[in-house]
Amino acid sequence: MKTAQDVKPHNVVLIDGSPWLVQKADYTKSGRNSAIMKMKLKNLLTGSSTETVYKFDDKVDVVTLDKIDVTFSYKADDRYVFVDADYNQYELDADDLETVLPFLVDGMTDLCNAVFFDGKVISVDLPTTIVRQIDYTEDAARGDTSGKVMKIARLANGTEIKVPDFCDTGDWIEIDSRTAEYKCRAKMPA
Fold first, then answer.
1. 106-127 burial, b if ≥16 CB within 10 A, otherwise e?
2. Deepest of 24, 58, 80, 179, by most Cβ within 10 A of its Cβ?
3. Beta strands of 85-139 (E only): which ranges?
4. CATH 2.40.50.140 is the classification of domain 129-186
5. Greatest CA span in the chain, whole angstroms?
6. Single pTM value for the model
7. pLDDT digits (tens, 9 = 90+) for 51-94
8. What would you report as the CA-atom Rg of the chain, rounded to the nearest whole angstrom?
9. Distance of alpha carbon 7 from alpha carbon 134, whole angstroms
10. Nearest 5°: phi and psi at 102?
11. How is domain 2-63 classified at the CATH fold level?
């Protein structure tokens, strides 16, 4: 157990038997009132979000979730199957992979983290940066030098992201998987 003032963003707290990810934690001290912690939380089981306020000395149960390295194997109906190094399979619904789904492609070799709570896989986290190939993008607009010119590029699985004007169809790019933003050009993965 920790006090609320010791809780930091990206910690996982246990509230009413459910794991909640702390997305934001702000310490506030006003003149007359006692100090408080305002927290923005996301339920890791249901995906719902909430904001709550704790007194700075309230006790909070911080938990550490188990993580295992896995790779994406295949999609069967609306279930996605991941495999670990010992060939154990973990199946997840599309709802559990909401932020990861746009970057899952057949044959990907990215090493992901399967997150466990009470022995059950609740989500999968991608690496911070991933490399993907542009399947289609419009040609660059000639003469447009007004600054950072961006255009839409489509990846092989249909995901669209904004890339700089100099990127072409067939180019490999590095993408920040947390924000789904272009980072830089990349070489074809080995």
1. eebebebbbbebeeebebbebe
2. 80
3. 89-93, 112-117, 120-125, 129-137
4. yes
5. 62
6. 0.70
7. 988 888 888 888 888 889 999 888 888 888 899 999 999 888 88
8. 21
9. 40
10. -60, -15
11. SH3 type barrels. (2.30.30)
